[in-house]
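User:
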Amino acid sequence: MRGLKDKVAVVTGASRGIGRGIALRLAQEGCKVVVNYNRSAEAAQSVVDTIREQGGEAIAIQADVSDYQQAQRLIKETLKAFGRVDILVNNAGTTRDQLLLMMKEADWDLVINTNLKSCFNVTKAALRSMMKQRYGRIINITSVVGLAGQAGQSNYAASKAGIIGFTKSLAKEIGSRNITVNAVAPGYIPTDLTNVLPDEMVKEMIALTPLGRAGTVEDVAAAVAFLASDDASFITGHVLTVDGGLVMQ
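Assistant: Predicted structure:
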């Protein structure tokens, strides 16, 4: 895709799942990739090693991006290593599913902070550099659950819906600086995060998906690469669903 060669991309929560797929795809497109992780150091290093084996450039940086100071450090270390931040993919996320009447306050706070507050933390840290260079691509990973809701996921749905509002508002704020802000909303994608879902729920989601299958991390990564590229330079404030049509149901 046009315009990705030698761009510096930060991908949060990139040690596994969708984040890993995004990091690998951006590296294949020629980006220098910062693989952010919180606890999975070995998995993050595996992503870096894979990118390097394929001739790309990558480093791993540990930071709990739900913490403001650590998010600031992530961007400072990126700037120290590469001198700039061109692409930011806010992908870090978690779930703590439970019906609201039984949900613990700690589980609500953890999901909101990990999924939503992290977008504020890392984006604010990266914005000054992007505004100075008058270029940036910010892609936030939301979910079809943020568009349609899901019983037992009020915390997750609220965080993902919040990301959509965040995306649209920020797009209006910084568009004049040649910085685009978009979101990608995956449907059912088998990952470690979704492996905890009951088999009945998985079967129901696939049955409701017009394309009749689960998605892949590569499907999501391709959408992110497109939005990060020059091919999407006139797209901002958009939510791109990568869900096989699930949200229409």
